[in-house]
Amino acid sequence: MEYKKADKSYKDVGPKGGKLVERLQCALCGWIRPVKYGVSKRMGQVREVRFDKMDLIHAPLWRLEKMTSAGRGSPKATIELVDSKTLVQLNDDIKFQIINQCQAILKILKSQ
Questions:
Q1: How far apart are CA 46 and CA 61, in angstroms?
Q2: pTM of whole model > 0.70?
Q3: Contact, 44 vs 67, CB < 8 A?
């Protein structure tokens, strides 16, 4: 099956209205987020999108969580961490995907 890339997202606003939202897409995982996405309620600081602040040695990149809730958005909702794995503990297939994507990113950036 062949996929055709869409010219626009269903979220894109036409030229007649709406506000412009600047977004960044992670070259590693594809996650898209607004460059400006509010103020941290806890810290009171403007949040910023960064690609260099994660603790790669200790961060749990894979997580198994038990989620319970009394309904969507309920203050009684809980998320319990059952298990986690760091980067070096991931399975070989995922490590291989990460290595290949990082190499492709570096090749493009170094060719500039």
A1: 25
A2: no
A3: no
